[in-house]
## 1
Amino acid sequence: MATIHKEERMRLALAVALAVAGGPAAAAVPESSYADLHWRLVGPFRAGWATVAAGVPGDPTVFYFGGADGGVWRTNDAGRTWSPLFNRQGSACIGALAVAASDPKVIWVGTGQVHQRWDIVDGDGVYRSTDGGQTWSHVGLSETRHIGAIWVDPRDPNVALVAEIAELTPGRALDLGCGEGADAVWLARQGWQVTAADISGVALQRAAEHAAEAGVTVDWQRHDLEQTFPAGEFDLVSAQFLHFWEEFDREKILRRAAEAVAPGGILLIEGHMDHGPFRHEGHDGQHPRFPTPDEVINGLALSDGWETLTAVVHPREQKGPDGENHIRTDSTVKLRRKA
């Protein structure tokens, strides 16, 4: 193998993506097979430093990367040449990028890198492309300045989780209605000490398996949140889509969530504003009521010791049972308890 000079060593994390994107290995590769490999720079040279890179599963030649102040770039030949894709968007500062596993032409981009600098602009929300980066749509969270990660549902390219809390110093976090644990696992990977609660024992078991696969520790607790609640105070309390198709005291749970926020901490509430393509009638014809952000805040009955950081409504696409994409509207409320 030819000697590769130090100055040619790779400074981007792209080679890691190159190794992963080819698909799962059938067996462990002996260390001797790659012991003589070295990093080398594959470019481009004028995009700032790389903040994130992603490949296309099954295609070892196509990769994307986001720059600190250089937008999004794509290579179709494993890094020999690169093309800029993000020149006409609102922010060139990229904090997160994800390629949908179920449709690699769908790309999600979060603007605003995590580590703010005097010479780097803030982000202006989330963008999405359905044609491999040729065109982009701004899909929301325009007031978000920093996005640290995006997770795309591996079965539905229209569903994504966006981590908009990267500017917070990791501490104690509580995830209410955690389901199978995607949010809780992500928080734990960022260094948070996470407690996660759900009413479903099956969901918690699957969540624990996902945490074990990710190599993180989460305190999984089973609660009917109307009756019992995790003990303690938390620097972040997250309640994502707490809706139920039967009689359900959501305001009571959210008020208890606010009580669990430590001084200086954050309460983050995400909810639906409509049924979207899934119309489901509960028992006796009941169905959830979807409050506006202002109604959510009023229902908390907070003291003057709180400040509202975000209270917005934002649309998104969701695939319905008919296989077609529909527009669904969600809401975000983000509050800080004053120290």
## 2
Amino acid sequence: MTSSATSAADSTELPSALSAELTSLPLRHPRQLLDIWFWHDAINWLGAKGQAHFKRLWWAWVLAVLCLWGFSHYYWVGINITKSLPQRFFFIKKTDLSVARDDIISFRWDGGPPYPKGITFTKIAKGVPGDVVTVQGRDFYINGQFVASAKPYSKMGEPLALGPTGVIPPDHYFVWTPHIDSLDSRYALTGWIKAEQLQGKSIPLF
């Protein structure tokens, strides 16, 4: 997963060729941009032409890094690698943790496999504190309005337990996307998202 990943009900892996290409680059984490040794290695990696370019326009690179550093305090870019939302790229506003119904939000995944704990999911806040979640069969309703049906099994054939029902408590949210394979609050693995898991409000780019 990348900085923001909206998952479907089954895992997705990067192609091995892409993974190999990414691991060949010197940058491993944005914080390296502030590390002088990263720049030393990066200039060597760029070769003679890259070194000449950097020496000529070093001030522009420094300005760009400072702008990126300042921007990263308030926003970061999320990439959706599944089809659970139609958009692929998002700005995640880290300073905005307020949530209203139908907001697109990003949060830390605290569930289990197929995804590692701590990756970022991006979904729609369909239910907010005080809403009543009910289920009939495997059909979920919020305040009496139909939301979506839950699949009985994942694509791997594993049974999918239903998520919680009842009144959504304070600082909890029912998250959802319209995709049939979305791993969201319909399922116990995701459940209701806690406020402490929130990473920010997401702004779709394209």
## 3
Amino acid sequence: MGSVRFRLVTFNIAHGRGLTPLQGLTPRRRLQMNLVKIAALLHKLKPDVVALQEIDQCSCWAGNFDELEYLRRYLEEPDVHLALDPEFDMPNGEPPGTRIGTTPARDVNYAIDLLERIVIEKKLPPKVLIAHQFTMNMLPDKRNVQDSPVVDVALVMDGWGPRQLKHAIYRMVTRTPLEHSGIKLFYRKEPDLLSPSHVLELKPTPSIVIYQ
């Protein structure tokens, strides 16, 4: 059997701010232009699967507009999926980075509902939605996240640290699981990076492994 080439693009769009070094200072029009450029780049690369991170929903970092709805036309592509990062989800216009943010289940469910409608209306294969977590408060009512017949919902343990800490946090966040589990590993920030065999020994076994 010959080899099969598979192109995966994972893209942290940094809330659409482009090269602006400071969050929250990019005008809405510029954010929208940056999102269009990102979409054009993905179209040019022609990947088999795209996973986008740090798409904001009405946050002060993203000009207080719904980037998810703005990018809906690109989510209608069969190979584009979605990831949510509660770390930067701040209430009442509070600047992200001052503390770890939180995403309620209703917002996760909003994203699931949107993906469901796209899959059904456009007759697409199932979508993947990833929610990142490394503290319990990031997804405080995670047990209320809904299941979906056409959206595979995955909880991915985020954050870097020594191997023992990674194991402990993985166990902690997966005590209240979602449909699938996963883990994110950091090449440069984790000198004792978990090997593939160690990752597969985790319980529950990760369905998704992200390297950054």
